[in-house]
Amino acid sequence: MECATGSNLWLSSFCISSSSSRRAPLNGNACSASFCPKTHKLSPSSSLRVEAVGSTPTAANLSPDSNPVARPGSKVSVANPVSKSIEWPSPVDATPFWKREFPSSDVNFEVPSNTEKDPDSLHIIHVTAEMAPIAKVGGLGDVVTGLARACLSRGHTVDIMLPFYECIQKEQISELTLITSYGSFHDGNWVPTNAYRGTVSGIPVIFIEPSNHFFKGQSVYGGSYDETEAYLFFSRACLEWMQVTLVQPDIIHVHEWQTGGLPLLYWDMYHNLSLKKPRITLTIHNMEHYGECRQEQLDKCGLDGSIYATEEKAVDDRTVGHNPERLSLLKGGIVYSNSILTVSPTYLKETLCSGWLASTLLRHRDKYVGILNGIDTDMWNPATDIFLPAKFNAKDLEGKKLCKYYVQKGLGLDLKGDSIIKGDNTIDASVKVPLVVCITRLVAQKGLHLITHAIKRVEELGGQMIVLGKAPDRRVESEFKYLADLHNQGPSVRILLIYSEELSHMLYAAADMVLVPSMYEPCGLAQMIGMRYGAVPIVRKTGGLADTVFDMDNQSNREMANGFVFEGIDEGSLNWALDRAFSYYRENPSVWAGTVRKVMEIDNSWNNTAGKYIDVYNSVRVR
Ligand code: ADP
């Protein structure tokens, strides 16, 4: 679908699109966009000063009384220690500001080399359906990339094996080379398959490209092929590649149901052939998706499906006695892996107490560990982020104010409030309009009714709210589209039903608060990324949110206090947290400023947690 450009249409009707810059991931349908190269000049001064450029408006044009939104392409440079001349965006720009061309050379995505090395080096191969930024749909992609980079920097050898989705932009891969052509089994045939090697974000990646229709389409998921069969094929193709090339890592790290069939294939097939050394680690990122599988689908990848149809192996316990019974690839993966991880200690406890897989996990409790995810602090760094119009850090937040102003201006939000740069070049702090962002997949897990309620409540409280989300379900999409049509021409709410990595960076930077009202949340990255960018989190107390956000009003834990936490799933509970956040923001500016600095300094990096993964790898490896 073609994006409507050159008008407000992108605000009102929202093309469902992926972003198209060089580093953009390819979720959703492609949407054409023309690039608009910019010249960026470094500004020498460090004050928040507004100066007119060429024939463009004077500083007075940016006063609250003026209407800068009505001036498409107005060029105003704002001096900032690290910002460039900013070309202020407008909602009527032909190219939305998040689709401009971004400099790629500003950020060094090489793996950091100054990290202390672990004494005993491992070879780890991740086998995964997602990898950020080239094939990212949600947190899984971020986690695989972040963990791989952290382990590389600690001196380990790490590879990622990924399906060569048709939608991956090849320009995002360095040194892409065909390394192996071989056959991999599917449904009685050996399918000619290519393996390519390339580098993404400093990580060696092996791309598996079958010659059949698997992994073709415009997005990572949802192509017109049977996903269960495709990922079973991929799992076997990865093991086959290791066998053909004689590569035997210490650890094969599989993720989610998509690669849950690999441990079965390994122990019941490839370990009896040539692969002896590897041990298998499975990370469960979200128990909701358990990989429903029929016996015939397992047969097609060369296993005997009937062998796994037992409660001890892979049968979905809820279907016992039904005709036919179903299997679960995730359950098979749990049973057959040497170690199982999930992404936060609280989610580990929750999964042991509820859900049909709890009994299987309890049976395998001794190999089940909860390790909090980290975030990649090079990729998510407001001091160097190439997508931000102005950079900032915990000690100098001027750039954050500019980012807020930039986003408000670009989306046509009302410019009254504390981010406004007045004619005398100062920020007008008299009207306090906090900006709340919510960046999420729009699925039931994420608390859809609370997100829609928050839109209403934030408006009532005189704040502003931006939702950036994509809904895989058409009904949810049309509900949010209705809300978008209702609000997007107004002064205080924007709902953008798109996937855009670039815009997400800008929104985290612009936000005063980041909202994560999930019904359940295995770990959650949005609250951690938000904090890194100085957005104070408002979260529901569940899973990893409970492990990372601690309430400001909990007197017994003042040291950890870093946000606003509510427990109920009702609107009143959310109101309670939102209202408190707004009143801190408005009535307690010094505490608020201290909290912004504090959340930015919290170390949620992989450096903190990768060591725990290494311990798990070491506990199962063969020496
Ligand atoms: P989940 O894995 O359940 O989707 P997480 O919080 O673990 O949730 O990770 C979500 C990741 O996806 C974050 O990096 C978030 O910024 C990103 N994300 C979610 N929706 C969008 C979107 N519409 N556009 C850009 N990034 C998004």
Strand-helix topology:
Layout (H helix, E strand, L loop, with lengths): L8 H4 L36 E4 L23 E4 L43 E5 L11 H15 L3 E7 L10 E13 L2 E12 L2 E8 L16 H19 L5 E5 L6 H9 L8 E6 L7 E2 L1 H6 L26 E2 H8 L2 E4 L2 H9 L4 H6 L4 E3 L27 H14 L23 E7 L6 H13 L3 E7 L3 H14 L5 E4 L4 H10 L2 E4 L9 H7 L3 E5 L2 H6 L15 E3 L4 H17 L1 H13 L4 H15 L3
Parallel strand pairs: 3-4, 3-8, 4-7, 8-9, 9-12, 12-13, 14-15, 14-17, 15-16, 17-18, 18-19
Antiparallel strand pairs: 1-2, 5-6, 6-7, 10-11
Helix pairs in contact: 2-17, 3-4, 9-12, 10-15
Bound molecules: adenosine-5'-diphosphate.
EC number: 2.4.1.-
Organism: Punica granatum (Pomegranate)
Catalytic activity: [(1->4)-alpha-D-glucosyl](n) + ADP-alpha-D-glucose = [(1->4)-alpha-D-glucosyl](n+1) + ADP + H(+)
Question: Overview of this structure, please?
Answer:
The chain is built from 17 helices and 19 strands. With about 625 residues, the protein is an alpha/beta fold. The chain starts with 8 loop residues before the first helix and ends with a helix. It folds into two domains: about 125-375 and about 610-620, Rossmann fold (3-Layer(aba) Sandwich), CATH 3.40.50.2000; about 390-605, 3-Layer(aba) Sandwich (Rossmann fold). Helix 2 (about 140-155) packs across helix 17. It has a nine-stranded mixed beta sheet, with helices on both faces. Strands 16-15-14-17-18-19 form a six-stranded parallel beta sheet, sandwiched between helices. Helices cover about 30% and strands about 15% of the residues. The structure holds adenosine-5'-diphosphate (ADP).
